[in-house]
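User: what does the whole thing look like in 3D?
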Amino acid sequence: MANDFDFMLIADVLPTLLQYLPVTLEILVFSILFGMVLGIVVAIPKLLHIPVLKQLVSIYISYIRGTPILVQLFLVFYGIPAVLQSIQIDVTRVNAIYFVIITYTFSNAAAFAEIFRAAILTVDRGQIEAAYSVGLSRKQAFIRIVLPQAIRVAFPNMTNTMISSLKDTSLAFSIGVMDMVGRGETLIASTTRALEIYIALSILYYVIVVLLEKLLKRNERYLNRYMQKELATS
Amino acid sequence: MTIDISFIFEAFQEICKVLPLTLFMTFTPVVLGILIGIVVAFVRIQNIKIFAPLLNFYVSFFRGTPIIMHIMLIYFGIPIVVDAIAQALKLSFDSNTIPILFFVILALTLSAGAYASEIIRAGILGVPKGQLEAAYAVGLTFSQAMRRFILPQAFSQSIPNFTNVFIGFLHATSLAFFVSIKELTGVATIVASVNLKFLEAFIAVGLIYWGVSAIIEWIAHRIEKRVTAYSKGGI
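Assistant: Here's the predicted 3D structure for the full assembly of 469 residues, as structure tokens:
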């Protein structure tokens, strides 16, 4: 059995699997962008203490944090068609990738909402008062003073969310999306060599995660460029 | 299609039966992972030659790849290694006799070890260096200082992070269904496809995970309150 292990196959399938990287990145980019927008919307009721909405948002965040992404994926995949069918819209032929993007958007939004909220709350109250004292309006104070500082605080946590979201894309194949893992599954079926294919997939994910981490780290340094050195490097 | 509320309840009861298995699959890896994490964190902090770079790679690889990959690599990889060793030693041992659950727990343990080591490392580095010096000053050895001063403080600081790891690995057990283990998600898919009621089954399993996560958070909160009781208002 050990002699059967085929090192060359790993190298052979890497280019094939890499062709499906755009699908993985498409899921990642859209779910992060939509997730950020939805995250801001979700964070507002808690920040402004809007009754009822605040409780609903808390339940939503708690549910997303309390359930595996795989279960969320299945719920969206089976739930949305069922809901839409009751109002006579048929989505059974829609590409599964949309369900994946919807699920990860919901999931990322919950994470981003908490990150944004925490980051905004870390900005010192005195900063806003200072902004008012020089004659800025509430909106101006928020956009020019609070937001830039909050983004700096939020960024490392956003990085973590993006990285784990990238790793979560590996589950998209479970509802039939042809991403890198989905293509890997078909290669396993045709070559009957599971270990080699999974090694190849792991290498790809590892390299992409490391690259994404490097990229985000550079951004973080840029956001911290006005901070004192010792704080900025931490 | 209408949602069959009573079936959610039925599925809920059916799926709940495998909750002990899921809890076992969560606790074993996390507890073993914390033990691995302590060792790994020490080797990396002390920068021990040869081992430190190896363990750096271990931590970075396991944190940089999806957990489903760890399960698949172990599930397909270990039998090949075991059979090769058995063949070389002329043992009549067949890897087919190893239960799949063992592979899943091994994969999750290695994964948890990588995450835990980073938490413990951050926890140890978070304790002020003066604490260690103070311990030396009263004549404690390094291992005594670690056990009595540094680690207890490091752990109490790390509780929120460990809670996240616990909940994260509770959720990670849902991946075991890909290697056909009948845990919560696995049973949910079975119940769903037997009755052709997918949505209801996944609503039920979602509620179970949510409830267990909430209980873990509640327990962690209680523990945190206890351990940090003495660290408030230091002087």
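In plain terms: Chain B touches chain A at residues 1-3, 60-61, 64-69, 72-73, 76-77, 79-81, 83-84, 87, 167, 170-172, 174-175, 177-178, 185, 188-189, 198-199, 202-203, 205-206, 209-211, 213-214 (CB under 8 Å). Chain B has nine helices and no strands.
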